Amino acid sequence: MLARILSTAFVLLPLVTAQTPINIPAPVEGDPATQPANDPTYACPATCVPPACVCASTKIPGGLSVEQTPMFVTLTADDAIQDPTYEPFSQVLNSTVNPNGCNLPFTYFVSTAWTNFWLITRAYNLGHEIGAHTINHPDLTTVSATVRDQEIQGSAQAVMTYGGIPKSDLAGFRHPFLAFNKDSFDSVAKAGFKYDSSVTLDPLTQPYWPHTLDYGFAYYPQPCIKCPSGPSMQYKGMWEIPMYNLLTNDSKLWSSMDPIINPQLNDYDVALSNIKATFQVHYKTKLPFGLYQHLAQLVAWGPEVEVKKVQLLKDFVAWTQKEFKDVWYVTNQQLISWIQKPVPADQMRTFLPCRPPAVDKANKEICDGIDNDGDGIIDNGVVETCQVTEEVSFQSCYGCPTLVPNITQPVPPQKGNATRKPAPDAACPNAGTWDPIAGACITLTRPQVKIPDSNASGSKPSGTNGDQSKGSGTVAGAKVAKTSVFGATLLLVAVLSA
Ligand SMILES: *[C@@H]1O[C@H](CO)[C@@H](O)[C@H](O)[C@H]1NC(C)=O
Ligand SMILES: *[C@@H]1O[C@H](CO)[C@@H](O)[C@H](O)[C@H]1NC(C)=O
Ligand SMILES: *[C@@H]1O[C@H](CO)[C@@H](O)[C@H](O)[C@H]1NC(C)=O
Ligand SMILES: *[C@@H]1O[C@H](CO)[C@@H](O)[C@H](O)[C@H]1NC(C)=O
Ligand SMILES: *[C@@H]1O[C@H](CO)[C@@H](O)[C@H](O)[C@H]1NC(C)=O
User: Fold this and answer.
1) Which terminal residue of the chain, N or C, has fewer Cβ atoms less than 10 Å from its own Cβ?
2) Which atom of ligand 3 is nearest to the CA of 419?
3) Could you give the CA distance from residue 6 to residue 137 in angstroms, rounded to a whole number?
4) Residue 329 phi, psi dihedral angles, 5° rounding
5) Superfamily of domain 2-351
6) pLDDT at 195
7) Could you tell me one molecular function GO term of this UniProt entry (predicted)?
8) Domain positions in the chain
């Protein structure tokens, strides 16, 4: 019955409760008696040099001064990517722009069950980063070795196959519940991921920049389950992008994910004050800052709370762009690229030029999640709706599978005559776009980017991006469901499955 209510939409959110941050270990106030924050045996030799090898360090990469260093912010999201949560989060990202004129990017760690794969394609072609987060969102420290590998590798395959992510751009993995141990790290490394991002650090006592794991961790990797200390967790060339804990405005550990954990407390002011205070702690040393969200948390408590949470995030990003001139919102992969080859803030626009979405009347519509021809409808007539079973339905540019992807069969064959061509392993060269129907890289016309005046405070979305977002209300001939419609349903799910 519940499944039937939900299946009337493209969106199915039974994972909402399974993914609430209740299961995320609370930050542990530095307790040196049990776990020293930092590992005195860490030794990283002088032969470890970028770009291949980067030691764990609290110093700014490249020997830049604090003043020269850009202030990086990462916004990450976890779990199934679905319309009712993607839309409100996009409002936050679209509400302001980076100094290069582009909308803010996110890094989305997608768990494949209940995902709308078309949103992966849409996000990727808007310049967001897609990472993997298993298929069914299990605690990887409690499953068998076989299931662990299947969950990790299968999620990468499904994201590439039905979301159209080129293998070369699928780099990151985040552990469900942030639950990891040596075995799960071994599996992530074996699957070939370029980085993991699951370790939480206290920015006051463990202000480490992202680094490679060639020589392991320089700190005790919270919240590792029985991790061996010392140098036994080493992975050549694989990165760890730490998740920094948020602090209260008087410098106590507050939250590792999802600011405003209990919306019923109506603690908007406290949350904004804490997030700003934590950002300022990072800004003093330019240690990258991050906000790590479960997007289901935006909508799980109903429309009123959703509006407040979205406003909180909008207010925070507007404040950073207004008050600080050198703030750059980046994806995790962009952050890695910068650490490998650091440039001062005044060269960032060359380092990270804006590549606006391909929207122009001269284009034909191809299935890439973008309104290429600018007619106000994204992927008009080319995106397919896959009713895989009675309960599971999603959209995709990459053909519909005959079965629901699962751990033993993450990429079942395409229905029909398999007319959609998978994305190539390497992203299209020269800013080309993969056309899954033609099976070729296509060059599309992209609009000019308006570079915001660096001296102007409170940057606004450029004209280009404004046009782009106009198309977002309509999807392939059918209106995108309004989030508020789902608010009540989501709450219902939360209550029923609690
Ligand atoms: C810190 O937050 C509290 C609420 O939690 C607020 O009353 C106080 O004014 C804040 N202090 C600063 C310096 O922002
Ligand atoms: C995955 O799906 C296939 C085909 O429906 C099924 O045979 C297999 O048992 C499923 N695997 C699991 C672990 O459910
Ligand atoms: C598959 O191809 C055959 C021959 O080209 C055609 O007759 C058939 O209609 C196609 N089926 C689908 C589902 O497109
Ligand atoms: C910004 O302000 C500085 C100093 O006030 C000035 O030298 C510079 O030309 C301005 N830049 C722009 C793009 O207006
Ligand atoms: C703004 O967000 C919407 C999703 O609601 C998206 O479709 C649109 O393309 C976004 N615009 C840009 C420029 O990112």
Assistant:
1) N
2) 14
3) 20
4) -85, 125
5) Glycoside hydrolase/deacetylase (3.20.20.370)
6) 98
7) hydrolase activity, acting on carbon-nitrogen (but not peptide) bonds
8) 2-351
